[in-house]
Amino acid sequence: MIRCSRSYRNWFSKGELAGNRENRGRFEVAIKKALSDPLIAGWFDGSWKVRNEASILGRFGKLRPDRVEKGGQTVILDYKFGQPEPSHDRQMKKYVEVLRRMGYTSVEGHVLYIKH
Asked: For residue 58, is pLDDT > 80?
């Protein structure tokens, strides 16, 4: 959880998340709640080789998934703070397709909705 807390503070310092203290507190609670899921928590346990917001050039142009993790498999994560939309799934399918074309095997993608 320490790693997550640092990431969370970095999001605010970089301007990736904004808001007053009350909103920040709600975001922090929502993020911690999401990380209470054992599957999700496993992606943040420090055992993965992680690339955050790395640019990928492909037939769809320049793509920037929020997080790509490489371990026994490749996991792509994209964080959303709003409501689910069909465009989110289409975006994730593009990420997965591009990584498979690059030779990555066992690729899976997940859109993580942080409800606050």
From this structure: no
How big is the CA angle at 29 (ends 12 and 35), to the nearest 5 degrees?
Answer: 95
Binned at pLDDT 50, 70 and 90, residue 94 comes out as very high
| Cα–Cα nearest to 70, from 40, 111, 99, 41 | 99
pTM, entire model: 0.76
DSSP 13-30: HTTSS---HHHHHHHHHH
Alpha-carbon span 19 to 15, nearest angstrom? 9
- Rounded to whole angstroms, the maximal C-alpha distance in the chain is 44
List CB contacts of 20: < 8 A, sequence separation 6 or more.
none
The residue ranking higher by pLDDT, 8 or 95, is 95
